């Protein structure tokens, strides 16, 4: 589309303080030339103008359409060229990416191989370090053992030097002792040492037994002392108990003597009471014989309680019979003109056993 030219009209700035409502005309209005103000664009003026021909306007629009089509075609060619360039660049980028992927794959494979080699090298290094540490510790242990062996050797050398005089002494003793003192043996020094060891062990056993016997003697002595103290305590206790028993015996003897005197004094009264008791028993037997029935047992086969119960029942029966008789006699006397009331009381006698 063709660019339209813009027309612009420059005007002086309007005067200020001019009122439209003024009635009278100004004095200088005769010198003023009035020019209309146009603010629209050129193509708008052509379109709105009544003097412009229709054909001119149509040609103008066709020119503008051709110009727009040309610009559109140019834009299409430019877009196509750009798309082709983009496609070429995309293909190149894909090729570069593929080459980059291949290089990355090769590099990753190279890195993986290097890592495997590195791990193997590290493992080998660690194994060698452990082997070195183990060998080092073994070396230190062997050195310590060697040092201990050297110390032991020095100690044995010192003991050998120290015991050399004892060997000399034993050889001198073997030469000085009788021939039949030790049984025949190849090494007399060894036999002498064995004899000394035997005597030493026997002496040690004797000393141990002696110490054990002394301890046992002390225990027995302590036990004997405790037994003596216990015996003395029991002796004192028994003596006090014996004195108490003697006192009790004397008191009981005195009491028995007094009881014997009282018994002798009351012997006559007891004889009299016994006689009275025999008389009472005989009286009870006689009364029972009179009161018993034919079917009752004799007096010598019944105890005193049964006898008394039988006598009591007999007396109760007799009293009941007497009451019946009195009641009958009273009823006959009450029929007279001057009745006389008689009260008789029957007494029931109960005899209780001793």
From TrEMBL:
InterPro entries, sorted: CFAP_domain-containing (IPR051147), DUF4200 (IPR025252)
Assigned GO CC terms: cytoskeleton
Keywords: Coiled coil
Region (Disordered): 326-354
Superkingdom of this protein's organism: Eukaryota
Bias (Basic and acidic residues) ranges: 335-346
Domain DUF4200: 58-175
Coiled coil location: 58-159
Signal peptide as annotated in the record: none
Keyword Coiled coil among UniProt keywords: yes
PANTHER family for the chain: COILED-COIL DOMAIN-CONTAINING PROTEIN 42 HOMOLOG (PTHR21683:SF18), COILED-COIL DOMAIN-CONTAINING PROTEIN 42 LIKE-2-LIKE-RELATED (PTHR21683)
Protein name as catalogued: DUF4200 domain-containing protein
Species of origin: Lottia gigantea
Taxonomic lineage of the native organism: Eukaryota, Metazoa, Spiralia, Lophotrochozoa, Mollusca
